[in-house]
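Structure tokens please, single chain.
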Amino acid sequence: MGRYSTRALMVEIQDKLVTHIATLARLSLSKEETTALAHDLRDILKYAESLESINLEGVPPMSHPTEGERFRPDEPKHDLTRDQALQNAPDQEGGLFRVPQVIGG
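Here you go.
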């Protein structure tokens, strides 16, 4: 896993670390949720460690997981009329969606 060994990270993933991450994310976790998440994170790191053992010799690096274009062409379609699009809008004005001011409010 790059510069850090998985074993070192597994040791660090205790309830205290999960609580710190939850605080940064402004999440409120119960003791049971904290313990479960710490366990899940350790399992994820164990899985990542198992991927490191795969022999990739002779496999060329890829910039994307798929080769070539596998998507449909992006062609504009006009499925809705303006009236249909605004039909359920909670607030509209002049044929446009009206939303609360977000910037400079």
